[in-house]
Amino acid sequence: MLSGPLFRKTFKSQLRILVIFAAILAMYMGVEISMFNPDSMDGIKEMMDMLPQQMINAMNLDVGAETSLVGFLGSYFYGFIVIMVPMIFNIIASNNAAAKLVDSGAMACLLSAPNSRTRVIATQAAALILSNILLMAFVTVMGIAVSQALFPGDLDIRAFLLVNAGALLMQLAVSAIGFSASCLFNESRLSLALGGGLPVLFLVLMMLSGVSEDLDVVRYTTLYSLFDPAEIIAGGDTVGLCMAALAAVSVVLYTLGILVFRRKDLPL
């Protein structure tokens, strides 16, 4: 059972940063869609030719490989921006869910009210999960609306929805890493070191794997290897398995975080 007042308070506090990150994603989405040319991708290729090839590879951009709108977005928007921007949001929000409250003493006030540890931390988890759902729902609606306005009928909506579903599952898994770390530690610095450091490390390894073919295997040591927009759009055989794996990571780590928080010593 969740605490309604705590849920509203937590979600309201997250809403400010949620709006900021939603605006950043909306800006990038609008720019990317407006750059699409259904007749020729020469302009994009010329612009990308101005960048070092290592940078293009590190950002997971598949230049010129896709001529469809959904393929274009899969490469230029979902290949890097949708990995990095929500990741930063989740690092901040997941730390705020537990560790920051314990560190500041606010958790003592929450637990002094007639609320069990389980109820408090489950409410925090629910608010974090809802924030991610709303963020990706906004991106999805924004993408469809702008695409229909600029290029009516060009967007493969089914494939686009699947890509966004995969992106949501990936970000829920990232948030679960941060949430479990936030539940494990009583200090924000330690929570951020693990809950923020691990997703950032995954991102760095993903970027390094794109720089050199010799490092390609490194990509598969990261969580982000389970989210491949091009594979989702193509309807690859492993898409369902990858999505199931991301969902499993989220369920396991959120559950583990709640169990750890219930049993650990708190400096109250």
UniProtKB/TrEMBL annotation:
Pfam families: ABC2_membrane_2. Coiled coil: none annotated. It comes from the Bacteria. The keyword Signal does not apply. One of its GO terms (molecular function) is ABC-type transporter activity. One of its GO terms (cellular component) is plasma membrane. Keywords: Membrane, Transmembrane, Transmembrane helix. The chain crosses the membrane at residues 15-36, 69-92, 125-151, 157-185, 192-212, 232-261. The keyword Transmembrane helix applies. This is ABC transporter permease subunit.
